[in-house]
Structures are given as structure tokens and as C-alpha cells.
């Protein structure tokens, strides 16, 4: 578990650790702001397009092998990013770093399922939930600490000892890969070779949709009409997706797990996860604007106030882990999402000049709700799939998270474009919309609860 936690922490941190250094990177490498933003996008896109292919490869070749390869690639790419002397080299290194992170993220929950006996799986999922939640919001704080004593290359240099330690620890500690059961590939037309064509279609589908959505968000944030190119990219991505999914439906163990999506509990869990992470992204991205520009808080005060959210997750995630098996996953996660919806609505109704206590107790409610949601939802995703498809379920978990965060960022850009000012009204609207997404996620979650049959 330590080997998994260290690699997971480094991978999730890198998704947000560079944001604070973008102005310095653009200035030093003589790049435009539009080019510099791809230092972030390249990592996210590299991760997104390879989550499902690597998860499928993990089901075939073993989760340990994929995890170790991902850690090694992530660490080497961090070294290349540290030495980058041009924006193009840095973007390329970040894309490769994202591919390495995909190796870690695609199989981590499958490894946890392999390590833990069923009775303790909830506690293992609780640990992962704490790590992902805290790492996702700790990026700016960690970046600020590093940049206070060094330049931006140190944001990548810190991965070298961490990645090396995680690699050697994982190599010695993780269980040996198990061959897939004979019935897992029975009747599969592609069981003898890895379907490269499916990989290419998966990459093309997610790339077109991601880039199209990002362009829409950028133009909305700038107050411009969405260009035809962005809509064209989205349409092309959906067209490729339609062909790709029809092709996947004919496979026994598809790369895009349409077989798992036929399981009601799994598909409802996906809807729950996407809506919940969309709500989280709307809140996390708008909160700094609200604190800094509307309330006049300092960067330090803003960071400390927002920290109340992940602290509540750290406290509640283990509680949720212990309740798994006693309370149905759908009901437990749905209760947490209901609490999150209330907390977000309360943040939307903050007074014009709130004191710190007004902000903190609302943040604690949001964090408590999210902490109760994430562990049972991840547990439901993993356990509703057959054991030999644990990798596919793990890959979908990461895909749902990134998809929800991307949708949330695009919606927020459109909201900021509509308001055109940061007097608190746009941020409040974003919080209300986030509350609606959390409430929708709660509905998806509760629908998973099956009534008990009479004895």
C-alpha cells in the first residue's frame, strides 16, 4: 500500500502543481500564455487518452507490470521536464509524464483489490480516496513551498527521488502478476495480440473531445463566440466515438468497457462519479477567485481556508471505509453527496464580507460530504466488475474523474464569460450549479440501492 500511495501521490500532484508557476515558465521560456497553458493540458491529455488502454493491458499482462512501467516513465519524463529549455520540449515532456501517470492511475485500484481481502477492501479504498482528494488540492500549496526556495524546474526535480523510491519499493513489495483466468479471454478474437487499432481510436476520440472542449472553454472565458473549429473537433470526436464503441461492443473484453457499463450498478456509479467531480471542479476553480478577488483575502489566507475541505475528507474517508459492508454503498455515497450539495449551496449564499469562521464551517461540510461519497463510490465501481476486469474498472474510475473535472472547467469558463466580472456573483452561480451537479450525483447513487427481498 505504501508503494501504491507514494506513486499515486506524485501522479495526482503533478496535475495541479504547475499552475502557480505558469507565468514564470512563460516568461523564462519566452512563450505566450496560450502556449504555456499546454504545459497543463499536455499532462491531462496524456493521462486521459491512455488510462483505458493501459487498464486493458493490465488485465492481460498484469497490474504490477503496468504500474512499474508507469512509474519509470513518469520519473524519466520528470527529469526531461526539469531540463527543458524550450516550451515545446517542456510540453512534450509533460505529455510523456502524463502517459507515465496513466500507468499508475489505470491500475492502482485493481492492485488494491488484489492486495486486500474482501473484508478489508473498504479500508484500502478509503486510503486511496484520502490520497487522491488531498493530493488534488495540495498542488498549489506544494508548489508555493517549492517556488519559495527554488525555480520552476524544481517542481519536476522533486519527482526524481520520490519516483525512484516508489519504483524500487513497488518492485519488491507488490504481489506478482497473476495470469488471467482461462474464461476471461474465451472467444475473444483479439486475445492473442493487443488491439493497436482500438488504442488509436481511443486516443483519437478522447483527444478530439478534450481539445474541442478546451477551446470552447478558452473562448468562453475570453468572451468570444465559440469557433467552428472547436465545434468541429467535438463533432469529430463524437463521430469517432460512435464507430469506436460499436467496434467495442463486439469484443468479449473491450478496451472501452461497454460490457461493464451494461451492469446497472457500474453505469450508475460512473454517472455518480462524473457529476460529483464536475461539482468539485466548479468549486475548486472558482473558490480562489472568490477569496482573492471578491473577499480580498491573501494567497496564504486563501490556501489555509480552502485546506479545511481536504482536512474534512481525511477525517471522514476512514469512517466511510469502516461503514462499507454495514451501509449500502449507494446510500452511503448518496448521503455524502447530499451533504456536499448542501455545503455548496451554503457557500453560494456567503455574505458579502464573511469572516473566516463563516467560510471554514461551510468548507468542512463540503469536505465531509465528499469524504463520505468517494470511498463507497470507488468501492462500488471496483466490486461491481468481475475480478478479471478489475483493470478496466480502475481505468474507468480515473477516466470519470478527469472527464468530470474537464466538464466542470468548461462550464465555469462559460459562467465567467457570461458575468464578465469577479464581484462574487459569478462564483456564487458556479457554486449553485455545482450544488445541482452534486444533487444529481446523489440521485444516481441512491438508484443503486436495491430493496431487500422479503425472506
Automatic annotation (TrEMBL):
<dbReference type="InterPro" id="IPR036259">
    <property type="entry name" value="MFS_trans_sf"/>
</dbReference>
<feature type="transmembrane region" description="Helical">
    <location>
        <begin position="428"/>
        <end position="447"/>
    </location>
</feature>
<dbReference type="InterPro" id="IPR020846">
    <property type="entry name" value="MFS_dom"/>
</dbReference>
<feature type="transmembrane region" description="Helical">
    <location>
        <begin position="303"/>
        <end position="324"/>
    </location>
</feature>
<feature type="transmembrane region" description="Helical">
    <location>
        <begin position="266"/>
        <end position="291"/>
    </location>
</feature>
<dbReference type="InterPro" id="IPR011701">
    <property type="entry name" value="MFS"/>
</dbReference>
<feature type="transmembrane region" description="Helical">
    <location>
        <begin position="90"/>
        <end position="112"/>
    </location>
</feature>
<keyword id="KW-1003">Cell membrane</keyword>
<feature type="transmembrane region" description="Helical">
    <location>
        <begin position="396"/>
        <end position="416"/>
    </location>
</feature>
<feature type="domain" description="Major facilitator superfamily (MFS) profile">
    <location>
        <begin position="1"/>
        <end position="453"/>
    </location>
</feature>
<keyword id="KW-0472">Membrane</keyword>
<feature type="transmembrane region" description="Helical">
    <location>
        <begin position="66"/>
        <end position="84"/>
    </location>
</feature>
<keyword id="KW-0813">Transport</keyword>
<feature type="transmembrane region" description="Helical">
    <location>
        <begin position="331"/>
        <end position="353"/>
    </location>
</feature>
<feature type="transmembrane region" description="Helical">
    <location>
        <begin position="152"/>
        <end position="170"/>
    </location>
</feature>
<feature type="transmembrane region" description="Helical">
    <location>
        <begin position="33"/>
        <end position="54"/>
    </location>
</feature>
<keyword id="KW-0812">Transmembrane</keyword>
<dbReference type="GO" id="GO:0005886">
    <property type="term" value="C:plasma membrane"/>
</dbReference>
<dbReference type="Pfam" id="PF07690">
    <property type="entry name" value="MFS_1"/>
</dbReference>
<keyword id="KW-1133">Transmembrane helix</keyword>
<feature type="transmembrane region" description="Helical">
    <location>
        <begin position="228"/>
        <end position="245"/>
    </location>
</feature>
<dbReference type="GO" id="GO:0022857">
    <property type="term" value="F:transmembrane transporter activity"/>
</dbReference>
<protein>
    <submittedName>
        <fullName>MFS transporter</fullName>
    </submittedName>
</protein>
<feature type="transmembrane region" description="Helical">
    <location>
        <begin position="124"/>
        <end position="146"/>
    </location>
</feature>
<feature type="transmembrane region" description="Helical">
    <location>
        <begin position="359"/>
        <end position="375"/>
    </location>
</feature>
<feature type="transmembrane region" description="Helical">
    <location>
        <begin position="199"/>
        <end position="222"/>
    </location>
</feature>
